[in-house]
Amino acid sequence: MALTGFAENVVFKAQAPAQVIVGRPFQLTYSVNQRSRDLRAPEFTDFDYLAGPYTSTSSSTSFVNGHRTSSFEQTYTYTLMAQKAGTFTIGPATIRVDGESVQSNGVRITVLPEDEQPQQSSQTSQTSQSSQSSQTSASSSQASSENIFVRTIASKMRVHEQEALMITYKLYFANVDVAQLTNNTKLPEFTGFLKQELEQGEIQTQLEHYNGRNYQTAVLYRTILYPQHSGDISIEPAKFEAVLRVQTQQRVRSIFDDFFGSYTNVTKMLTAPGVTIHVASLPSGKPSGFSGGVGKFTMRPSISQTELQTNDAVTIKIDISGAGNMKLIKTPAIDWPEGFEPYDPKVTNNFNTTTAGVSGTKSIEYLAIPRSAGEYTIPPVTFSYFDIEDKAYRTLSTPEYTIHVKRGAGEQSAGSNQQAAVVSYTHKEDIKQLGTDIRYIDTKPLQIKNSQFTIHNYEWIWLWYVVPLIIAILLLIILRKRIKENADITRVRYKRANKVAQKRLKAAAAALKANDKEAFYAAIEQAAWTYLSDRLSIPTAELNKDNIAALLAHKGVSEVLIKQVKEVLSTAEFARYAPSTDHAMDDLYKATTNLINDLEDQKI
Amino acid sequence: MKRLILWLLAIGYWPVAFAQSEFDAANAAYADGRYEEAANMYQALIDEQPDATLYYNLGNAQFKRGELAQAILGYERALRLQPNNKDAKYNLAFAQSKITDNIAEQDFFLSTWVRAVRNSLQERTWLLLSICLFILALTGILLFLLGREPWLRKTAFHVAWLALLFSLIAGLNAASLHKRDTLRNEAIITQGVVNAKSSPDRSGTDLFTLHEGTKVDIRETLGEWVNVRVGSNEGWIRLSCLERI
Question: Per-domain residue ranges for chain B?
Answer without folding.
Answer: 12-96, 109-183, 186-244
